[in-house]
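Bug #77: duplicate submission created two jobs. Keeping one. Sequence:
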Amino acid sequence: MASILSDYNAGSAKASNVAKSVPYSDFDLAFDIHPKTRDIIPLYDIDAVKNAVKNLVLTNFYERPFDPFKGSNLTALLFEPADVFTASQIKREVERVIEEYEPRVNSVLCEVIPKPEENYYSVSITFNVVNSANAVEVNFYLKRIR
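Kept job's structure:
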């Protein structure tokens, strides 16, 4: 008695047992257009993870429709006095949201420097991407809009 599965696969090439390496990919929120293809330029590998970390940290609660608690409370902290205590809270919040929601990242170190004269914070996040030996750094400013 012949198996249907073996009859089906008899004429086809053997499937490879080696998994293909699929890079991480993401869209840049700037939506830059490629000059020749006129399509959105995607981000790959480490650039995609850096973009995802920054977007995750800057996402407020209730901004994502089906996951309202994904994000951080940084907007509320920006209305606190710009001092080392608020910087410490921002640092804890950044580390919490990355460790909780970004599985592609490990060894997260965050440095938050308050700039009370200009009323903003300089944020520097250093991390390792899983299966990568190089440390990656993301820098941005947190400033109150209103």
